[in-house]
Amino acid sequence: MIVINHRTGDRCVLTFKPRGWRCKDVFEITGKVVDASGRVAYRISGRWNSQLIASPTNQYTHTLSPDLEFDSPFYNTADTSHFVLWKNSRKCNKSPFNLTPFAITLNDCPKDTLLPYLCPTDSRLRPDQRAFEMGRWELANALKGQQEQRQRMVRKAREEGRMPQHRPRWFNAGMDADTEERVWTPAKVEDGTAEYWMERERVYWEGGREKTRWKEVEDIFVEAPECMLEISEPV
After folding, report:
1. Minimal CA–CA distance to 106: which of 90, 118, 120?
2. Helix, strand, coil distribution of the chain in percent, nearest 5
3. Which of 52, 109, 175, 216 could lock 85 by a disulfide, CB 3.0 to 4.6 Å apart?
4. How far apart are the first and last CA of the chain?
5. CA 167, CA 126: separation in Å to the nearest integer?
6. 178-196: pLDDT as tens digits
C-alpha cells in the first residue's frame, strides 16, 4: 500500500506480509517513508492487530522489531529513537465483532441531547441497525427486509417519473486538485459555512425534529416499531 502526500512529494510504502508456515510473520507490516528526493527518512514496522512503530533512519540502526515494547504511550524513555504511530486499544469483554469501545459508542444517540437534532437520513436512525444493536436479531432481519423493499419502491418511482430524481443534499461533486480524481465536498453557503451544519443549527434552535422539519430532506427509513422505543440502550 502506498500513501502519497501530493503537496510535499513524500511517500509511505507499506507491505503486509503474507502468513507463512510459522507464526513469526503473522499480521506483520513493514514499510518506509521516502521524501521527495528519494531519501528513506523513516522505517516502519509492526502488526496490524497490535501496534505500528517508526524510527528515523539516521537515529536507529538496529532491526526494528514489530513487537518492540514501550514503557510509555509513545516511546521508550531510555531510547527515543523509535516511537509509536498507532497502538490497538483494549477490547470490551464480549465485544461484538471485536469492536473498540470508541466504535461501539459511535451509534449511541442520547434521546435528550442528540437524537432530536439528527438529520432524518442519518444512518444512526435506521431501525434495523438499532434493533441489531439491541440484540433483537429476528426483528432486525425483518426490518432490514422492509427497508430494502422501501428502497426498491422508491427507485422504481424515480425511474417511472413519479418521484423527482435523486440529488445529493449535502455534498457537491468536484475534482481533487492534487490527484485529479472525483471527490465529494461539503455543500457550502455564500459565507463558506457547510450547509449541513447551518441547517442542523436551525433545527436545534427551533426545537428539534418534533417541532420542525429539515429543509429538502426526505424520510428514507421505515418506521421503528413501538417495542423498540421502549428500550433506548443497546445490549
Report:
1. 118
2. 25, 25, 50
3. 52
4. 37
5. 21
6. 888 899 999 999 899 999 9
